[in-house]
Amino acid sequence: MSEKTVAAISTAQGEGGIGVIRISGDDALEIADRIFKNVNGRKITEMKGYTAAFGKICNNGEEIDEAVALVFRAPNSYTGEDVVELSCHGGVFITKQVLRAVLSAGAVPAQAGEFTKRAFLNGKIDLTEAEAVIDIISAKSTSAARAALFAKEGVLRKKINSVKDDLLSLAAHLSAWADYPEEDIAEVTDDMIFDTCNKAITALEKLLSNYDSGQAVKQGIDTVIAGKPNVGKSTLMNLLSGCERSIVTDIPGTTRDIVEDTVVVGDVILRLSDTAGLRETDDTVEKIGVDRARKRLEECGLLLAVFDNSRELDSEDIELLKSAKNVPAVAIINKTDLKQKLDINYISNIISNIVYIAAKSGEGHEELVKAVEKIAGTENLNPSEGILSNERQRLAVSNALSSIKEARDALSLGMTFDAVTVSLEDAISQLLELTGEKASDEIIDRVFHNFCVGK
Amino acid sequence: MKYFAGNYDVAVIGAGHAGIEAALASARLGCKTAIFTINMDAVGNCPCNPSIGGTAKGHLVREIDALGGEMGKTADECFLQSRMLNRGKGPAVHSLRAQIDRRKYSDTMKHKLELQPNLELRQAEIVDIEKSDGGYLLTTKMLAVYECKTVIIATGTYLGGKIFVGEISYESGPDGIFPATELGKSLKKLGLPLRRFKTGTPARVLKSSIDFSDLEVQHGDEPPQPFSYETENLGENKVDCHISWTNDATKQVILENIHRSPLYAGKIEGVGPRYCPSFEDKIMRFKDKPRHQLFIEPCGLNTEEMYLQGMSSSLPEEVQLKFYHTIKGLEHCVIMRPAYAIEYDCVDPLEMNATLEFKSFPGLYGAGQFNGSSGYEEAAAQGLVAGINAALSVLGREQVVFTRDKSYIGTLIDDLVTKGANEPYRMMTSRSEYRLVLRQDNADERLTPLGHEIGLISDERYEKFLKKQEQKKEEIKRLKSTVISPCDAVNNILVSRETSEITTGVRLIDLLKRPQLDYEALKDVDTDRPCLDPNIFEQVEIEIKYEGYIQKQLKQVEQMRKLEEKLLPKSFDYREIKGLRLEAQEKLNKIKPLNIGQASRISGVSPADISVLLIWLAQNK
């Protein structure tokens, strides 16, 4: 475990009202003392936990800002270490100045997620909570943040716990009944086992089916916008990314043919790529572009196929419709403000989701959002029901589910209760691992994977 | 005047179920051994139920036998009636229980001790124990001093024993035998922290005063099964037991007199077992339960004393009479020995290693109720382990740690030395996470090779065991290669067992996989079946039927083994790992677990702490 004291700006960077610099580690209080001059002269190292002081931040004798210092003493802090939080005036320049002062006073810069990592390693939060914090930090849409927040607050855990508790009380009943054959403990009936198993199966299946939508919320869907030149792809792209520009990130490293952008459509994150057209060509360079576009199209999670309402279907449109057969797709009929020449029936035989827009005026935007949400399965997604947010969680639930099904099948086959119990206990142990109530090697592997804890 | 009376490799204090196994194991391994009993007539006494085995306890007896211990054999020799409990609930929880003749059991065990080479049985109260250069000095009440390389304390309920019957209390061991009053002080002086536990037993009543006419009879199994793999002819069941029920009137008597219970009046400081509560405890804790079951069990063939299982009490004798008299069949019963509670000194088992040797006192071992357990079988299991390890250490051999994945014995000891005991510890099948692997039928497969390696299983018995394993393998091969063709004879059986008929040839092994079928059902169509030990058929059938589930459990065993392979340092101050919570640091420093697996079972060490330990281990490789 790192013994170094780390510091970072822990508020969002921007022109906010207040900027907070968090210092955590053994020397946090000493380091703060080197740069913080308390108005009443008292040193931070002399202060108790959960107290605050007002003073000035100085670097090499030069006054940078006024600030409030909040003192937390180990283990009663977020990270479980000694922590000082300096609240200074917001703004990129000032907070960076203060951080620079802190670093020159002996702290080292915190890595992304490092406070959380320390909180986890110090036993302040368990793995699911830590994962949730990481998710919040990297959340790209409001819904993702909301889901992550719910995870942190333990909605997922509550959900899992209720399944687990049912299984545990059944297992306990089975044990008591086996261990005390001479006490008149109520017999465990087949129906009791079937009921409990079925209830658990329903709950876990719900969680699993939410997972893919959850992934759409969290990770985003690979989306291709395709259509012949001049059909309005770029306008559509601008329309889609218009509202939430601030959290759009540019992903570098793309080719000149595929332009990538991440946009938020409703609750769904779309990783958009605009492709070159699919027209037949002899031009070698263009051919490479077309091939690449076609491949991209075959692998995408969502195809937004754009058609021009004012032109008749041509071979390129039909080529596009062929590709649309194998992927989730929305047909977007653009330029509805112009006279219709397009054979929409032909399109609707292949793509059932049709949205009419006039990209230039922004008309049809809402319908488009709905169609996308429908395909992503998020239209009815309620993060407060608990969402599995990563592969580890999904695997645990899916293993638990198959164990419970095994228990149920064992019983239907006429196996004895001890065989049923083996499967039930396996399910329980999977769920315990999910909530972090049981430690295992796999969890630790995941920690090493997520938190870059040096070996 | 003290006098020097001799020296021993291994000395065992107490000749109850723990002491007997300890002494026999040590003597059989070639160590000069002494066993001290406070009363020569109390060797192998069964002061509570006249039965051996029961759920999970039956597993322990089979395991003791598979390792070369004595309890199973003696129980077979003294058996009156035998039943396999939980028959319908699956092989993992099948447990054998036998009613035994308690006087005969005691005499038989005493005689075995007397006949055992290398072993000396002495009536003597040990009053003092102190460290010496070569081990420990034991002093008897008669001032004989013995020098012993190793000592096993197996004092049961005798150490500081105190009996409670209502308002009456007096210092005593069980059954009116003297308690050991001085040894406790000496142990405290030595530095062993002692604490008080309590247990209790029901009354013995006169058989002729019981009206059996309306009581449900409980017969033994036909044929009865033995505990020991070496018992060839067990004989017939000799007695019946009877079942009766308490009623509302019984409950009323208890409620009206509960203030006279020493436990409820606060006179008993010792902690009693939740799992084996007195009757008044059951009434007070489960007030809504209208009735409780009780079993009336004979104590032997040459006695009229009957044991009332389930009716343990520490209420005054007159109250006992009153509530027994409310019970059907017992309306006029005469109490021969009253029920009582007994409080005694025991040690915190967290002070011990999994070898049952005290961490701070090399050469000093503990076993049985002294270690915080309850029950004859739990005691015998620990006695065997303590005896083996004391002997191995004297012989300069490596001591043995029994693991959870191989035995209930290992589970019992791991629980005691890892989790500690806040109340008398009783074995239960639910204590094991590997029930389908640790069955009572395969105890020999799990432990007899180890017993042979230790030296308690003779070459002859081991050869026999190997032959049995060979036959078992052959039988499975035969089942795989024998194909049963569809015909009326087969399909009639299948139909009568409510399973689907066959239309093509089916391997015997696939038929046996069906839960509805067993060896018995198929005997008429399985014409080439060899004549084998019935235990082989039993094991084969279970392994075939439960194969998938057994595999699943073995996978769990493997996962745990991975954690058990991550060894923790023996001497290390866990306060140095800052990420551990304070409670975890303290517990880890106290228990000093051998590996991560054991650490994960310590109460007060959370999974988060285990994660921290794992990361710390990985970083400090």
What features would you describe in this structure?
The complex is a heterodimer of chains A (455) and B (621). In chain A, helix 4 (127-138) packs antiparallel against helix 5 (142-152), helix 6 packs antiparallel against helix 14 (417-434) and helix 13 (391-413) runs antiparallel to helix 14 (417-434). Chain A is built from 15 helices and 13 strands. Chain A is flat, with a radius of gyration of 28 Å. In chain A, 46% of the residues lie in helices and 17% in strands. Chain A folds into 3 domains: 6-125, Gyrase A, domain 2; 155-213 and 390-451, tRNA modification GTPase MnmE domain 2 (Four Helix Bundle (Hemerythrin (Met), subunit A), Up-down Bundle), CATH 1.20.120.430; 220-376, P-loop containing nucleotide triphosphate hydrolases (Rossmann fold, 3-Layer(aba) Sandwich). With 455 residues, chain A is an alpha/beta fold. Residues 243-259 of chain A have low confidence and may be disordered. In chain A, the strands form 2 sheets. Chain A has a 7-stranded mixed sheet with strand order 3-4-5-6-2-1-7, covered by helices on one side. Chain A has a 6-stranded mixed sheet with strand order 9-10-8-11-12-13, sandwiched between helices. Chain B has 621 residues and is of the alpha+beta class. In chain B, strands 1, 2, 6, 7, 8, 9, 20 and 21 form an 8-stranded mixed sheet that branches. A 6-stranded antiparallel sheet of chain B has the order 14-15-16-17-13-18, with no helix packed on it. Chain B has a 4-stranded antiparallel sheet with strand order 11-10-19-12. In chain B, a hairpin with a 2-residue loop joins strand 20 and strand 21. Helices cover 35% and strands 19% of the residues of chain B. Chain B folds into 4 domains: 3-76 and 106-197 and 344-454, FAD/NAD(P)-binding domain, CATH 3.50.50; 204-342, Elongation Factor Tu (Ef-tu), domain 3 (Beta Barrel); 470-551, Arc Repressor Mutant, subunit A (Orthogonal Bundle), CATH 1.10.10; 565-619, Orthogonal Bundle (DNA polymerase, domain 1). Chain B contains 20 helices and 23 strands. In chain B, helix 2 packs parallel to helix 9 (376-394), helix 6 (248-257) packs antiparallel against helix 8 and helix 11 runs antiparallel to helix 12. Chains A and B meet through helix 6, helix 14 and helix 15 of A and helix 17 and helix 20 of B.
